[in-house]
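Exercise: predict the fold of this chain.
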Amino acid sequence: MTTAAPIKLNMRRMASRDNAAIARVIRQVSAEYGLTADKGYTVADPNLDELFQVYSRPGHAYWVVEMEGKVVGGGGVAPLSCSEPDICELQKMYFLPVVRGKGLAKRLALQAMDFAREEGFKRCYLETTAFLTEAIALYERLGFEHISEPLGCTGHVDCEVRMLKTL
């Protein structure tokens, strides 16, 4: 009897060489869920192809997940624009189907919140959409609470689910 070799997964801080790969992941997952640019979802972000540069600034961080050396997901955290300085935003959490359900989103979100605490943030905000039920369930398990009004100026006009967590 032969057993398959375990799949090698690696989570690490994003490097400039990851720009194109994570942009492809975000576009593929967005298309899968119908998250179109015209509604202000991440695919409309003018910096989508330059995320390393965006997340290299102070208070920002982005991690990618690799499987067998290929980028298959990622997520990050950054200061929430147009808001109180103690609020960060969990951003751009996207994973290809091949790695969903393996606990990577939870691990990445926890890492992002640890980073945010170290950076002095007191609260973490996020926006998503109601049909991403698995993501919402994860955020609830992580202690995020639903709030009615949007915070900051994210531009995500169709993200009707808003959540906040005290760090």
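Check your answer against the key: The chain has one domain: 9-166.
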